[in-house]
Amino acid sequence: MRCPYCGNEDTQVKDSRPTEDNTAIRRRRFCAACGGRFTTFERVQLRELTIIKANGRRVPFDRDKLMRSVQIAMRKRPVEQDRIERMVSGIVRRLESMGESEIPSAVIGRLVMEGLSSLDAVAYVRFASVYKNFREAKDFEEFLGELSGPGRDEIDDDR
C-alpha cells in the first residue's frame, strides 16, 4: 500500500480488525520512510458493477460516491455514523446480489430513498429533493403531502 504522505510503496500493517458490522477489515498502517500512520479498509467485492446514468452514460460503481451523497443528506442529523455505514453496506450487498453487472442509477436512488426513509425523515426529504429534481417550493409541498398520506389534511383542518 502506497503511503499517502510520501508515496513510499513499502508500508507495514500494524493492526488489523474487522469493522463493527463485519463488512470490512480496518488496517492501521505505518510508513517506515516518513513515519506516517494511516488507516485503510478492505472490503469484499463480489463483482464489478457499472452504473447506467439517466443519459445512457456508463460509469463504474463507486461506493465512496454513494457514501458521500448519503452523508450530504444526513449532514447535521442525529444519526450515528455506524447506522449510515450499515445502510450503505446493505445497499451495496443488494446491488451485488442482483446478479446484474449493469445497474440503472434509478435503482440505486430508489434503494437509498428506502434506506433513508427508515433512518431520518429530514435526510429522506433532502435526498429526494435532489433525486427527484425539485425545482420550486411547490415540488416540496407535493412530496411532503405524499409523505403525510391521505386524510392528513382533514386532521389538520380540525384545529
How would you explain this protein's 3D organization?
- The protein has 159 residues and is of the alpha+beta class.
- It has six helices and six strands, in the order βββββααβαααα.
- It has helices at 63-74, 81-97, 105-119, 121-131, 137-148, 152-157; strands at 11-18, 24-31, 37-43, 50-52, 58-60, 102-104.
- The chain has a three-stranded antiparallel sheet, with no helix packed on it. The protein has a three-stranded mixed sheet with strand order 5-4-6.
- The longest helix is centred in the middle third of the chain and has 17 residues, at 81-97.
- 13% of the residues are buried.
- Residues 151-159 have low confidence and may be disordered.
Short description:
This protein is α+β, with helices and mostly antiparallel strands and 159 residues long. The chain has helices spanning 63-74, 81-97, 105-119, 121-131, 137-148, 152-157; strands at 11-18, 24-31, 37-43, 50-52, 58-60, 102-104. The protein has a three-stranded antiparallel beta sheet with strand order 1-2-3, with no helix packed on it.
How many strands, what sense, and barrel or not for the largest sheet? Answer: 3 strands, antiparallel
Arrangement of strands in the largest sheet = 1-2-3
Structural classification: alpha+beta
User: Which blocks of ≥5 consecutive residues have pLDDT under 50?
Assistant: 151-159
